[in-house]
Design goal:
Helix 2 packs across helix 3, helix 4 crosses helix 6 and helix 6 packs parallel to helix 7. This protein is globular. The protein is built from ten helices and twelve strands. The chain has one domain: 3-Layer(aba) Sandwich (Rossmann fold), CATH 3.40.50.300. The relative contact order is 0.18. Strand 1 and strand 2 form a beta hairpin. By secondary structure, the protein is α/β, with parallel strands linked by helices. Bound molecules: adenosine-5'-diphosphate and magnesium ion (MG) (2 copies). Adenosine-5'-diphosphate (ADP) binds next to helix 1.
């Protein structure tokens, strides 16, 4: 599904290398987690995969289903089935949440050569999905994320994900700033979307999210590289011992 080889990335306007050779392969239906200290390059990895401006790829490759992601603009990546839930969801004043979602769904359908979703069908689907995420009708009508609480924004990100039905979902610290109840809602939303054909990369600072979203593989990232890969136990180990031992081992 997702194959990253020796990915090296620097800031576009600064001589600062952030990713120093990342290797990561995620198979169809797998859930991988990346943990790591602040500043290790986790968000940068997700930004580069989604095509955000400001970064320059200086080496390596990233493909989704064999197609070169790094060569595509963000819309093409989304049409191919890549979705990124941001650590800080953006507010879009003046654009209703429902309108935004319908436009996004139709843009994706168009890019795939499919017919537009009818208004009635769209309403039916969005109401269903919003209900499971405890997003009420009023939140659907408000401008995207404007005035939403932290938890509401994150739930709204998962709603976007549910509506777009991507095959590769990247969640960047979707749990940060969430209380236990909101985290459970978000996790339940993600778990409901798990399927054979859909893969997840869950970036998190805390092991507790991985109690809810059980990963198949856990990677530890530090200083622009993945320094260790293991099973779910690796997350527990890090939670107990911190990163210091791993960093020392790696150095
Ligand atoms: P993480 O998500 O693991 O906390 P980031 O990818 O956000 O790490 O950041 C990795 C490093 O790159 C940090 O040292 C951060 O300060 C730096 N960095 C990332 N993006 C930028 C940017 N746009 N401008 C300046 N520094 C940046
Ligand atoms: Mg950070
Ligand atoms: Mg980050």
């Amino acid at each position: 599904m997702l194959e990253i080889k020796n990915l090296q990335v620097k800031l576009e306007d600064e001589d600062k290398q952030i990713l120093k050779g990342v290797d990561l392969t995620i198979g169809a239906g797998e859930v991988h987690a990346i943990m790591g200290p602040n500043g290790s390059g986790k968000s940068t990895l997700s930004y580069v995969l989604s095509g955000k401006d400001g970064y320059e790829v200086t080496g390596g490759t990233a493909t989704l289903d064999g197609e070169d992601l790094l060569d595509m603009d963000p819309e093409e990546r989304a049409a191919l089935g890549l979705f990124l839930a941001f650590q800080y969801p953006v507010e879009i004043p003046g654009v209703g949440n429902m309108t935004f979602l319908r436009t996004a769904v139709n843009a994706q359908r168009k890019a795939r050569g499919e017919e537009e979703i009818s208004a009635a069908e769209f309403l039916k689907v969005i109401r269903e999905k919003a209900k499971t995420l405890k997003i009420d009708a009023e939140m659907l009508k408000r401008p995207v994320n404007v005035g939403f609480s932290g938890g509401e924004k994150k739930r709204n990100e998962i709603l976007q994900m549910a509506m777009l039905e991507p095959k590769m979902c990247i969640l960047d610290e979707t749990d940060s700033g969430l209380d236990v109840d909101a985290m459970k809602l978000v996790s339940d939303g993600v778990n409901a979307l798990r399927s054979e054909g859909r893969s997840f990369l869950v970036i998190t600072h805390y092991q507790r999210l991985l109690d809810h979203i059980k990963p198949d593989v856990v990677h530890i990232m530090a200083n622009g590289r993945i320094i260790k890969t293991g099973g779910p136990d690796l997350a527990l180990e890090v939670e107990q011992n911190g990163y210091a031992d791993l960093l020392e081992e790696h150095a």
